Inverse folding.
């Protein structure tokens, strides 16, 4: 069986991506748009678009009742949530189930289980997958000291209740521990009303490696290779690549197997990603979390394997078994993806919405561009700043890097600020080409005193010069 | 190039218009366009259709319900006089009802949706003719409801 | 022609309010302001409606505009008849000494409170210290606080919660400590 009509409960490039996958399967599409997205590319490409609310996402793209009502009202038999917004929302998956609309994603129970970081960690431990060494709740400084004695320094003190860096302290020397404990606990109490802390080993020389998995309704799970997403700024990925050739084969195979084991242990259905952190000093890996959705960087995997992950998501949700075995999945060459955002890098990554005057992407046989942008498009200020994902594939990492450098240099955008100058600079760095980077490397580069020189100001002047005075 | 129009210029223009015997003004100066109509201007002309029919739009996506409960008669039909706070129907989303108010005083000119119809955010539900209502001297309302 | 600012539009609206207009439409570089007054009743009826087209966002509701009676407005604003036909939240004409206009750090969606159900950062006549948060502006998921530019008292607030504001828009007026 296959779906007849799919509601796309998302916007931007991923909405375009889902519409295209549906078209190739002969499935009709209904795009949901906010008032600010009525003229967007997804609205034009879909067979129908339906306005679900005002620009404010809380009243449109984040409203479970509204998107389910839209799906039923438009006669859809399935709903694809994309990523972000409601993609990992168990309430949406349940509401779909009750309305008789297939949710293109994991079962509600899986979404709920993996959405809770502590339960996810517990499940990993039970499955025999390593987690970052640390403790449960530590009641006081004395207990924290005992934990540090066991796992060694440096460590991270984290708020049990929180996230976003609040109530978090790095401890490198043992005499810092008491002060850090008090500060972190006070911060956590102020921010979350709960001063409980736990301890985690600080992995300073870390890589972020994640494994793409697919599971069907009949208990079959495969991995579709891994991606290296070490280049991040403030926990936002900037550049992703695959396969992870920069870590030893032994580790890579262990990570892939751990991801499959974890997925099997929860009867994982549909596409997902299991994230790991690799300690490059000790050659160890640890489970971080599972993302129960299609990811932004999924095209890296598609470029390596030729597998259309969104198409398989739709097939799995329609009850079809996986059409291939693990042995049939082959990774060929090396792929890199760069996220191009509407941000002025030289001005502290200031968001830069507005009208795109010029949009000239590079065209090569080895280039793929996932985007909802076009010349004249007005990037609205209400949503995230992702404009496009530029993906190249090469026979090996060196060739892929050279191709990406060329593609970035050819890509020309005017009217708004983009992160293109920043990406060009990053990918030319010898540390990047040599693979000698870690998850905090990008922020270290940004902190260099002469970092902003030549990153975009030139482009601004070019734009100003072109405008009639 | 047309000389730049400043705020003071615009004020002068409007004051001159107000002091004059003219009833209607339309002015275009470069990027600036001004159209004004004075109180007491005869309503027989062509331009004042500008505000004669107002649209009542769906404040959210859902199923339009014309009556106070399903199968109940419609709350309004063409010719029904409405006040700003008159409920003209409901939008049902997952069995939760949201009342839709007329938002202005007038007479229902046209109902564009049927009971039970799926409506989008911002879709026009009905048109209210406001001109006739303005001519009638109904009791003043104690408060003002904005349509938006 | 950047001569016509948001402040000018406020002044013009005030002028119209004091005049004998029934309907006025001003269009400028993509922003259209249309004001209609229904005559025949004194207290209310349909309030003035504003709308805008193009990319430029909607100016504040007229009720807010009428709140904003300040000294040094349009040339005739001082003579304006106290309007009897409009919103109730009218403030008396006051002169604000040591006046400091508060503008947002960038264009975006303005939030008056730190969380949806929380109390707003400030109200009118609240004392604040330089650097206190007066609001938050969000653009593309980046949240930037609006900080008090000086020690003083918040005297006028022109902006509504969740309203889209331009970077040159006056959000509030403070009276700086002498």
């Amino acid at each position: 069986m296959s779906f007849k009509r799919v509601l796309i409960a998302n916007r931007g490039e991923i909405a375009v991506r889902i519409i295209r996958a549906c078209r190739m399967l002969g499935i009709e599409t209904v795009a949901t748009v906010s008032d600010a997205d009525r003229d967007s590319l997804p609205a034009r490409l879909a067979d129908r678009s339906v306005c679900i609310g005002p620009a404010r996402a809380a009243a449109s793209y984040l409203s479970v009742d509204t998107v389910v009502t839209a799906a039923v009202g438009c006669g859809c038999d399935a709903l694809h949530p994309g990523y972000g917004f409601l993609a990992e929302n168990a309430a949406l998956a349940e509401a779909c189930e009750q309305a008789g609309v297939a949710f293109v994603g994991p079962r509600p129970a899986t979404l709920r289980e993996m959405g809770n970081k502590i339960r996810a960690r517990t499940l990993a431990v039970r499955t025999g997958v390593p987690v970052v060494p640390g403790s449960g709740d530590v009641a006081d400084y004395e207990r924290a000291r005992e934990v540090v004695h066991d796992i060694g320094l440096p460590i991270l003190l984290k708020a049990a209740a929180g996230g976003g860096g609040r109530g978090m302290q790095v401890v490198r020397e043992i005499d810092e521990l008491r002060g850090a404990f008090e500060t972190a606990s006070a911060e956590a109490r102020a921010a979350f009303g709960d001063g409980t802390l736990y301890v985690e080993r600080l992995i300073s020389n870390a890589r972020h490696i994640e494994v793409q998995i697919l599971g069907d309704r009949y208990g079959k799970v495969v991995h579709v290779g891994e991606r290296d997403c070490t280049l991040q700024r403030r926990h936002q990925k900037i550049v992703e690549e695959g396969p992870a050739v920069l870590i030893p084969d032994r580790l890579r195979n262990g990570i892939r197997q751990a991801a499959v084991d974890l997925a099997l242990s929860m009867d994982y259905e549909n596409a997902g990603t299991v994230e790991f952190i690799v300690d490059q000093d000790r050659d160890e890996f640890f489970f971080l979390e599972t993302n129960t959705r299609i990811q932004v960087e999924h095209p890296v995997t598609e470029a390596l394997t030729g597998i259309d992950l969104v198409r398989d998501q739709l097939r799995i949700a329609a009850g079809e078994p996986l059409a291939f075995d693990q042995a049939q999945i082959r990774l060929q060459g090396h792929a890199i993806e760069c996220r191009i955002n509407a941000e002025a890098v030289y001005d502290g990554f200031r968001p830069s919405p507005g009208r795109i005057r010029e949009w000239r992407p590079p065209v090569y046989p080895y280039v793929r561009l996932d985007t909802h942008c076009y010349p004249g498009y007005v990037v609205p200020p209400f949503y995230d700043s992702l404009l496009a994902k530029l993906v190249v594939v090469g026979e090996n990492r060196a060739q892929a890097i050279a191709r990406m450098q060329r593609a970035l240099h050819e890509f020309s955008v005017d009217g708004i600020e983009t992160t293109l100058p920043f990406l060009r600079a990053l990918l030319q760095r010898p540390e990047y080409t040599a693979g000698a980077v870690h998850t905090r490397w990008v922020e270290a580069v940004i902190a260099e005193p002469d970092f902003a020189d030549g990153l975009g100001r030139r482009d601004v002047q070019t734009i100003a010069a072109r405008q009639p005075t | 190039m047309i000389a730049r129009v400043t705020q003071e210029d615009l004020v002068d223009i409007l004051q001159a218009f107000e002091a004059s015997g003219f009833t209607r003004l339309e002015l275009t100066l470069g990027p600036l366009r001004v159209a004004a109509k004075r109180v007491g201007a005869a309503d027989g002309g062509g331009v004042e259709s500008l505000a004669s029919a107002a649209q009542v739009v769906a404040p959210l996506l859902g199923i339009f319900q014309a009556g106070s409960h399903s199968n109940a008669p419609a709350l309004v039909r063409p010719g029904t006089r409405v006040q700003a706070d008159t409920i003209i129907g409901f939008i049902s989303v997952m069995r939760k009802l949201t009342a839709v108010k007329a938002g202005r005083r007038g007479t229902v000119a046209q109902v564009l949706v049927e009971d039970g119809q799926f409506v989008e955010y911002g879709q026009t539900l009905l048109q209210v003719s406001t001109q006739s209502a303005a001519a009638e001297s109904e009791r003043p309302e104690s408060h003002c409801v904005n349509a938006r | 022609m950047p001569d016509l600012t948001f402040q000018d539009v406020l002044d013009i609206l005030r002028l119209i309010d004091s005049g004998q207009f029934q309907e006025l439409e001003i269009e400028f570089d993509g922003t259209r302001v249309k004001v209609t007054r229904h005559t025949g009743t004194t207290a209310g009826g349909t309030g003035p409606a504003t709308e805008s087209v193009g990319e430029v966002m909607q100016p504040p509701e007229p009720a807010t505009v009428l709140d904003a009676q300040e000294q040094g407005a349009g040339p005739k604003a001082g003579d304006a008849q106290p309007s009897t036909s409009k919103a109730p939240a009218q403030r008396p004409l006051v002169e604000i000494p040591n006046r400091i206009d508060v503008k947002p750090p960038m264009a975006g969606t303005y939030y008056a409170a730190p969380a949806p159900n929380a109390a707003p950062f400030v109200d009118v006549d609240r004392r604040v210290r330089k650097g206190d948060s007066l609001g938050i502006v969000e653009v593309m998921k980046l949240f930037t606080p609006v900080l008090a530019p000086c020690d003083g008292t918040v005297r006028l607030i022109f902006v509504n919660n969740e309203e889209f504001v331009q970077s040159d828009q006056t959000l509030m007026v403070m009276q700086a400590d002498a």
